[in-house]
Design a protein that fits this description.
Elements (H helix, E strand, L loop, with lengths): L2 E4 L1 H12 L3 H8 L3 H9 L6 H11 L10 E4 H4 L6 H21 L1 H10 L4 H15 L5
Helix pairs in contact: 1-6, 2-3, 2-4, 6-7
Length: 139
């Protein structure tokens, strides 16, 4: 089974979209600025636990659903969705946002398109090269 890793930033964004909130709406519910939510969703800032609690409360989910790098099997993601319509809405919104992002960022679209043809061995080689360059262990 394929595994997916979700960072806190990914989870905030996914649950926000699932609830049908804009970044501005979520910020208002949490008593924050929209720019703060944007920074959390892009990973440019990491929310403190108190902030995560506010966000979780606004999204009506347990704070544990937002914390840390959680490994989820593909089928377990579905457990977060109460109804099939919620799943469809979530993925439609996600695909629309992705499409808009790629439309307005053509250089990212080229990378995205190229990534569709990458073999696992190529990913492993690129990861090894990045590890050597950065001196870090990237997985």
């Amino acid at each position: 089974m394929d595994k997916t890793f979700f960072r806190t930033s990914d989870k905030i964004r996914q649950f926000r979209i699932l609830k049908g909130y804009t970044q501005k709406q979520l910020a208002e519910k949490c008593g924050m600025y929209e720019s703060q939510i944007r920074k959390y969703e892009t990973g440019k800032a990491n929310p403190k636990i108190e902030t995560l609690q506010k966000i979780a409360k606004a999204l009506e989910i347990p704070v544990s659903s937002l914390k840390g790098d959680l490994e989820l099997a593909g089928d377990k993601i579905i457990n977060y969705f109460q109804h099939e319509a919620d799943q469809i809405n979530f993925f439609n919104n996600y695909l629309q946002e992705l499409g808009e992002f790629l439309y307005y960022n053509p250089h990212h679209k080229e990378l995205f398109d190229a990534s569709m043809d990458i073999k696992e061995a190529d990913v492993d080689l690129a990861t090894e090269m990045l590890n050597r360059i950065s001196g870090k262990n990237i997985e």
